[in-house]
Design goal:
A hairpin with a 2-residue loop joins strand 2 and strand 3. The chain is an alpha/beta fold. The protein has a five-stranded mixed sheet with strand order 1-4-5-3-2, with helices on both faces. It starts with 10 loop residues before the first strand and ends with a helix. Helix 3 crosses helix 5. It has five helices and five strands.
Length: about 150
C-alpha cells in the first residue's frame, strides 16, 4: 500500500504546540481540513494516547497520531505537522517530538497497511530531520515519496 494523498490543506509546517494534546489536535485539524475526517476524530486521537500512552511516538522525534476506523472518517487521509519547538509526549526513548503524522483509515485492513507504509517510509531516520526543515508542501511530499520509494 502506498501512502494516502497529502493535499496542502493536510500540512501544517512550523506550528507551535502547547503540549502533546495540542500537537495531536493540530494533526487532527489538518486531517479535517483535508476533508478526510470530522472534528471528532482529533478528539479520538487524543483519547488513544490518554488510554494507551505515548506508544504513538514510533521513532525519535516522530509521532504517528491515529485512532481506530469510525464514522468520523470520511476517507483515508494523511496529515503532517512539523513543530517549531519539539514537544515531550512522555515516551521514554523517542521524545521530544518534532513531527506529528496524522493517519485516518476506514477499515482495520487500511489501518494495518497504513501504519506499515508509514513505518517503512520512516525507516531512514534522516526523513524526520528533513521534514522538520521542510518549508513547503511540495518539499514534504517529495521527502515522503522518496522515503517511500527507497523502502518499497
Amino acid at each position: 500500500m502506498s501512502l494516502p494523498p497529502l493535499p496542502d490543506s493536510a500540512l501544517t509546517l512550523g506550528a507551535t504546540a502547547r503540549d502533546w494534546k495540542h500537537a495531536v489536535t493540530l494533526a487532527g485539524r489538518a486531517l479535517e481540513a483535508s476533508g478526510a475526517v470530522t472534528a471528532e476524530y482529533a478528539k479520538r486521537m487524543v483519547r488513544v494516547v490518554e488510554e494507551f500512552g505515548a506508544y504513538i511516538v514510533i521513532a525519535p522525534g516522530l509521532a504517528l497520531a491515529h485512532a481506530r476506523p469510525g464514522p468520523d472518517v470520511h476517507t483515508e487521509g494523511l496529515s503532517v505537522v512539523t513543530l517549531a519547538e519539539p514537544i515531550a509526549f512522555g515516551h521514554p526513548h523517542n521524545d521530544p517530538v518534532s513531527v506529528v503524522i496524522g493517519l485516518a483509515v476506514r477499515t482495520p485492513e487500511e489501518h494495518v497497511a497504513g501504519v506499515a507504509a508509514l513505518a517503512n517510509a520512516f525507516n531512514d531516520a534522516s526523513t524526520i530531520e528533513q521534514l522538520t526543515r521542510a518549508t513547503t508542501a511540495d518539499e514534504v511530499r517529495s521527502i515522503l515519496s522518496i522515503a517511500e520509494e527507497v523502502t518499497s
